[in-house]
Design a protein that fits this description.
Largest sheet: 6 strands, mixed
Shape: elongated
Strand content: 15-25%
Helix content: 40-55%
Order of helices and strands: HHHEEHEHEHEEEEHEHEHEEHEH
Distance between the termini: 81 Å
């Protein structure tokens, strides 16, 4: 039974006090309207109209149920209006990493409203964002790419347990500095593992990190994927691990953060739109900038590529011993 159609027949009949006028009002045949009313009476278990007189009258049950029926029809009408409004305002789902800054995402939502675009934020892993664009379940997404070709870069570093008074600020950290030290004796404390968030568990980044770690002399088992972000943060804040992450994420949770010197280990992002009927579509510039700020990214494409030897040479030599 189409409940809404049957309630419309019932309400129209009650308000018009006649089947013929109600059928004309709804633009349907009178026998169809009469069948709908009869079906509704069977559904409610009692007559809604007294048909024994020349002009039908609404029964006590019909009078009792009438305001509720009107309320259901009013709500259904409002639901249809909201759906039409949403279609006109162009609802778009946006795929983002799990470590975005909430305040920056809020700015993106407000800006979408100003541009006539209703945005829905969805936290997804990197591969989930790419597949969402491909199957059309996402309208836009922050997509991981190699930093040299990306529109935006996110500098990565190592988060560690909080340091009293903030500790001495340092410019960069080289992976060589994490190598096990020689000559400390058999009883020395094991080096903490280096944890990778889900956002960095992508082949292109894991391969780069593995090569960089091998050059730095770090044992392969020292680097391992983290579980849930909350668990990884707990281990980090307790001093049991180091967490590879962006600075805003570390600072937000009270961890100490030191940037990595190797810029090849930065995250690279592009803001992409789902392909349209005529091929690939571009994300609007205002949205790309706001989503990039949510992950702490800086504009890269179009700027000069950093020189390979542009590093602090004394620090590099000291790190190598």
């Amino acid at each position: 039974m189409d409940l809404l159609a049957h309630l419309e027949a019932y309400v129209a009949t009650a308000e018009e006090a006649g089947f013929s006028r109600a059928a004309d009002r709804l633009g349907i045949a009178q026998p169809l309207l009469s069948r709908r009313v009869k079906t509704l009476e069977e559904y409610f278990g009692g007559p809604l109209f007294d048909r024994s007189r020349r002009q039908i009258e609404t029964t006590e049950l019909g009078v009792l149920l009438l305001p509720y029926a009107r309320d259901v029809l009013d709500r259904a009408q409002r639901l249809r209006q909201v759906a039409r409004s949403a279609r006109r305002s162009r609802v778009r789902a946006v795929g983002v990493p799990a470590d975005c800054a909430p305040a920056a995402l809020a700015r993106a939502l407000r800006a979408g409203t100003e541009h006539g675009l209703t945005l829905g934020i969805r936290e997804l892993p990197p591969l989930g964002r790419e597949s969402g664009l491909a199957d059309g379940s996402l309208g836009y997404a922050l997509v991981r790419t190699v930093p040299e070709q990306a529109a935006f870069r996110v500098p990565l570093g190592l988060a560690s347990a909080p340091v009293p008074d903030g500790g001495a600020a340092r410019r960069t950290l080289h992976l060589e500095e994490l190598r096990p030290r020689r000559g400390r004796g058999a009883g020395r404390t094991a080096a903490p593992p280096l944890l990778l968030l889900t956002e960095d568990q992508v082949p292109c980044f894991e391969d780069r990190l593995a090569r960089a770690a091998a050059r730095a002399g770090l044992p392969e088992e020292r680097i391992r994927p983290a579980g849930p972000a909350a668990t990884a943060l707990a281990e980090t804040l307790a001093g049991h691990a180091l967490l590879l992450c962006a600075e805003p994420f570390a600072r937000q949770h009270g961890a100490h953060w030191t940037p990595l010197a190797d810029q090849a280990l930065h995250r690279g992002y592009d803001v992409r739109a789902a392909p349209g009927r005529d091929g690939a579509a571009a994300a609007p510039d205002w949205l790309a900038a706001l989503l990039a700020s949510a992950v702490g990214a800086v504009t890269h494409r179009g700027g000069p590529e950093p020189a390979a030897g542009h590093e602090d040479a004394p620090a590099r030599l000291a790190a190598r011993g």
